[in-house]
Amino acid sequence: MSLLELRxxxxxxxxxxxxxxxxxxxxxxxxxxxxxxxxxxxxSGRSTLLAMAAGVDQPDAGEVLFDGVDLNGRGATxxxxxxxxCRQGVGVPNGRxxxxxxxxxxxxxxxxxxDAHLRAHRALERVGVEPCGELMLGDLDGAEAVRVxxxxxxxxxxxxxxxxEPTKGVDLLQRDEIVxxxxxxxxxxxAILVSDGDGSGLSDADRSLSxxxxxxxxxxxxxxxDLLPLQRARGRSTAA
Amino acid sequence: MGAGVKKERSFPMRxxxxxxxxGLVIERSSxxxxxxxxxxxxxxxxxxxxxxxxxxxALNALKDKGLIEEVEGSRTIVVGASRQPKPHYRVTEExxxxxxxxxxxxxxxxxxxxxxxxxxxxxxxQQPHMALAILERYERACLDDxxxxxxxxxxxxxxxxxxxGDRLASAYGRNAIAxxxxxxxxxxxxxxxxxxxxxxxxxx
Lengths: 240, 204
Known about the structure:
The complex is a heterodimer of chains A (240) and B (204).
Chain A: E1 4-15, E2 18-30, E3 35-40, H1 46-54, E4 61-66, E5 69-70, E6 83-86, H2 98-108, H3 113-126, H4 142-154, E7 160-163, H5 172-187, E8 191-196, E9 207-212, E10 215-218, H6 228-233
Parallel strand pairs in A: 3-8, 3-9, 6-7, 7-8
Antiparallel strand pairs in A: 1-2, 1-4, 4-5, 9-10
Chain B: H1 3-10, H2 16-27, E1 30-31, H3 32-43, H4 53-64, E2 68-70, E3 88-91, H5 93-122, H6 128-144, H7 164-195
């Protein structure tokens, strides 16, 4: 059984009074320690697919299983409980420092302030923006903002990280660093699903898929010969 | 300069191996064995060369055409030295100019081949299902392509800008994949419409 499994998931949206079928019976499996990238043109449904995978949106039909449990019944509660989700951008400036934002999820879960502060610091260090801890969100450049968004998810110790277009808005020369960070997190045992619109996210993925016309193409499940990430990840800690 | 050398220089050099070796010499003056090792690492998968002896053949061809020259004194036998002398080669001004022209020609050739492929696929307008099958295989090959991986683990000793060629190749591969996948989707819609008995542009 894979860590994340989408079974024949369908979803439609209302767009200008027309119902558009965004996903048509899409199936996808992601294993522990796998980095999977989904490429798609604008409006291809890649963000919708990721929202389903993270459990923040519900399919019209089909199932989304995380560790064998249907996310449909859990909604957004799965976030922070094994699933980390980064939507595009780090969020609007809220008058709080980066560290405050990263530790907010922990404090909301009842973690004591000193412990939350320490874990936030470690998460920022892990993603390479520890010096930005006292900056405001609005002070970050594109790459730093993505790293902080990842830290916000990472601090809760996810087993699955879903990231919508991590290289969007990031300077060309810094995109490689973001992709390599994701690769290293996957190598640490976290299953990672990313969407991609410019090809940057495909290079170091274990599997690259394309989404078009509501259909997902490519290797939608780990193949027998592609089990290295699973083996690599076994026995490693995933917590930040 | 003899008549034979003049005749040799007048022939256009077509071997991609020779041009590739010239690029390696431009990157850094060196000797045969080192050039072969560098060739294998950087180009072994895209322009296979086989044996090391082909490097020496390429060096001879480049030297005959005046594109490279032997570094003075590099062949000198040192009395008491245990190693054979290694003739080092460096690029000439003519070599750099010729390489620039060849790289530009290669870029044009690449563009020409892409157009050729697209038009050849267009010939299958009456066989849209066949074209769709080709596109599917092409897409799968693009998605499975690991040629664009970001270089991280290879060490680049003594290179002017460490790993630049690898990084450029990686970035090129990633951009090319995105562009190709976008083109495949466009072509798929065209052929899918034809397969459904529609003019793909009837609503345009």
